[in-house]
Design goal:
Blueprint: H1 3-11, H2 17-28, E1 32-33, H3 35-42, H4 48-59, E2 63-67, E3 74-78, H5 81-86, H6 100-115, H7 125-135
Antiparallel strand pairs: 1-3, 2-3
């Protein structure tokens, strides 16, 4: 499933294209987001559009708000199965509750994706493999990195090259 296919699938759940694009980024790159990230993604100031979008997510059960330190803001965890099923990832690990120690790293990844939206981000192992194949088609398959202890579920998690 391509990124565009994922966006179209989320749009069928009554989201605009812009909202769907942001949600796909959130689901694939961390599962958590801040309202300021959505405002930045849209190129707008924080205001009615942002608060309406997050109120819609919470009201429909797509996301859960979490209070941040000192109640200065809210963090949202996008976890709804319907959204993840729409993008072809019903068992994606980002649906699970996020340990506090991982929140900052996930938010930083989403910040990078939002800031550099003109870049093509390789999400799945299949996309990474296809990209490598276009760059270096003659590279032997047995020399590609693979996930330790995960069988053929992926190729790029923990790197270990074949001996």
């Amino acid at each position: 499933m391509t990124f565009e296919d994922r966006v179209k699938a989320v749009m069928t759940l009554d989201f605009t294209e812009r909202q769907a694009r942001f949600l796909v980024h959130v689901m694939l790159f961390g599962g958590v987001c801040l309202p300021r990230q959505y405002a930045r993604f849209n190129g707008r100031a924080y205001g009615h559009v942002v608060t309406t979008f997050f109120a819609k997510l919470v009201a429909r059960g797509h996301a859960t708000p979490c209070r941040c330190l000192h109640n200065w803001g809210r963090l949202y965890h996008v976890h709804d199965r319907r959204l993840y099923e729409a993008i072809g990832e019903p068992r994606h690990p980002h649906r699970k509750p996020v340990p506090a120690r991982q929140i900052i790293a996930r938010l930083m990844v989403l910040d990078a994706v939002v800031e550099h939206g003109n870049l093509r981000w390789l999400i799945s192992d299949r996309e990474k493999l296809a990209f490598l194949r276009t760059i270096v088609p003659s590279f032997p398959s047995e020399r590609l990195p693979h996930v330790i202890g995960m069988g053929d579920r992926g190729v790029f998690g923990c790197f270990r090259t074949a001996s």
